[in-house]
Amino acid sequence: MRILITGSNGLLGQKLIAALRNDPAVELLATSRGDDRTADPLGKRYRSVDITQQPAVDAAFDAFRPEVVIHTAAMTNVDACELDPVACQLQNVTATELLVQAAKRHNSHFIFLSTDFIFDGKHGPYREEDQPAPLSIYGHSKLDGERLVQQAGLKQWAIARTIIVYGIAKGLSRSNVVLWAKGALEKGTPIQVVDDQWRMPTLAEDLADGCIRIAKKKATGIFHLSGPDGMNILELVQRVGAFFKLPTTGVTPVKSDSLGQPAKRPPVTGFVLDKARRGLGYAPRGFEEGLAILRDQLEA
Q1: Residue 56 domain flag
Q2: What value does the mean pLDDT of the chain take?
Q3: What's the CATH number where 103 sits?
Q4: In b/e form, how buried is each residue of 64-99, taking b as 16+ CB within 10 angstroms?
Q5: Rounded distance, CA 236 to CA 286, Å?
Q6: In terms of DSSP bridges, do strands 231-232 and 198-199 run parallel, antiparallel, or are they unpaired?
Q7: Higher-scoring residue by pLDDT: 39, 68
Q8: What digits encode the pLDDT tens for the residues 57-100?
Q9: What is the pLDDT of residues 92-150, one digit of tens each?
Q10: Helix 11-20 vs helix 204-216: angle between axes, to the nearest 10 degrees?
């Protein structure tokens, strides 16, 4: 099975590569912007591709002829998207459209990564068929991407929505809430943490496993892939502190609207995971179990 991954330098991209690179049933092409940043370079199995440029996309597809595309690349900084909607549109919508058209030409199974931020957070946890109502430019861009995938006339497509992905990988351009919390608590830095946003954080390895299951089972449709444990962000930080035996005395609870962030966040998201559990055999690990995996990787 020839699998092309976009965003291979990102957290999910690196976890997908780690899971697939030694799989004898898989021929892999990892793509990202710039140089390969994976811990163990992929050599000829890596190609630098600017997915906002049609010639670059078409050249990569024509050379590799992927049977499966796992499209993880995106502009995911919610406030940056709000402040620069043009860049957000280019990276999250235009790039997706170029990839979808190339996938259609090659009859590739197209797997698109999406987000809980396509919902308004009034009625979570959400099922796959619940009505989207994004609050932010980022949420709108990912929903536009979903609709492109659904309406392009692809032979096979799947959408994998997720929530707060955490984990560790080499050379990441962005951190994540778990690493941020751990770092701040270790330094004793006073931090303000919202207590009115409820999420189900997702271990990057679990999300990668869900995506691979979609690919190998040739599954189609929408799947919700998150962690199984729900909590507000304050509780998340407190649980990180408890797990790593770090004091949380410098943590002050605040409300979202007091932070003055450019983008609105949905208050309560979370996912009902029944469809992915039943249809894919998806079995995400609990939050503390995920933290144990992260701890072992940090100590390795």
Answers
A1: yes
A2: 97
A3: 3.40.50.720
A4: bebbbbbbbbbbbebebbbeeeeebbebbbbbbbbb
A5: 12
A6: antiparallel
A7: 68
A8: 999 999 999 999 999 999 999 999 999 999 999 999 999 999 99
A9: 999 999 999 999 999 999 999 999 999 999 999 999 999 999 999 999 999 999 999 99
A10: 60
Indicate whether 175 belongs to any domain: no
What total number of domains does the chain contain?
Answer: 1
Establish if 127 belongs to a structural domain. Answer: yes
Q: Is the separation of the CB atoms in 117 and 136 below 8 Å?
A: yes
Q: How many residues does the chain have?
A: 300
Phi first, then psi: what are they for 191, rounded to 5°? -135, 145
In terms of residue numbers, what domain contains 220?
Answer: 2-170+202-228+270-285
The pTM assigned to this predicted structure is: 0.98
Nearest to 159 by CA among 94, 273, 72, 87: 72
In sequence order, what are the beta bridge partners of 192? 252
Question: By the 8 A CB rule, do 36 and 30 touch?
Answer: yes
Count of helices and strands (H, E) across the chain:
11, 13
Confidence tier at 173 by pLDDT (50, 70, 90): confident
Q: How far apart are CA 263 and CA 239, in angstroms?
A: 26
Q: φ and ψ at 225, to 5 degrees? A: -125, 100
Residue type (1 letter), 118: I
**pLDDT tens digits, one per residue of 11-28:** 999 999 999 999 999 999
Tell me if 297 is assigned to some domain.
no
CA 167 to CA 203: how far, in whole Å? Answer: 6
Q: How far is CA 282 from CA 31, 90, 110, 122, 195, in A?
A: 26, 32, 19, 26, 29
